[in-house]
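Attaching the record inline, Q. Sequence:
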Amino acid sequence: MKWRIFYRGSGFFFLLVFIITGLFSCRTAREIPEARLKPISTGRLLRSVEKNTFGYDDLTIRRINCRFSSIRNKANFGIRLEASKDEKILVSIKKMNIPVGRVLLTPDSVKYVNYIDHNFFVDDYSYLSDFLNIDLDFESIQSILSNDAFSYRNDSKQKDFRTFDTSIDSGMYLLQSEKEQKILNLKARGKEGKARRLLQRYGEESVILQRMYFHPRDFTLRKLIISDISRQRQMEMVFDDFEKVEKNDFPGLIEMNVTSPRDVITLKIKMNGFSTEKIDRISLRIPEKYEQIHVN
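Structure, as predicted:
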């Protein structure tokens, strides 16, 4: 993944929030002293994470309140999320109870309606992936919704985590991309030449390190960090204020921080109104007079 986040009008708000609203499935658990944690293999960690993923057929989050701020802008807006497993995810955005936009995700397409500019686009996941500079598809989004481990890279070695390493950090199990960590360690030791050669061998344009922190008691995701070392950019997400939804606990609060040389972005999300009741229908109507725009 080459992580890229920047401001592009109202569409930016949706794309930023869409990634965040997926990362919420965590359980409440008591902290375990780091000294008592025993090292485990990456395979065992992944099996434990998979065992504790959140299974759902239908999911609704009725009220998601978002507070956004950057160097140039501040905004508050609301979101509603509806998801039907393996089929559709619908995100609706409002500002001051005024509809702003809606996006419908299916395994094959992304449909976005902009109620402010009276336009829409229909595309596969290439535009969304290019916009965020991240390999993104419907399957990876569902993995996030299920609190499953996921890799941001779209290749077989990354997808099955063969290049990831597991360690203990800050009282949690840390799963991180191993080869990027090697390059980062070389840079920290002043061995820029070796770091460049290793980067060329991997065929990468930049060093991007992914870290996922899992709680040792229930193996749920508590923190996600993606660092673009080459471009001095980082995204960090932390989950808090958990509440029970049937047999699962969800964080009622998600805090996201994105830092770069050009901007500092923060987003605080408060969520309530969770439901796993069956959803009769998920659809997105495009008004006849709306103009279709082409993004590719």
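The chain is about 20% helix and 40% strand. Confidence is low (pLDDT under 50) at residues 1-30, 154-159.

More tomorrow.
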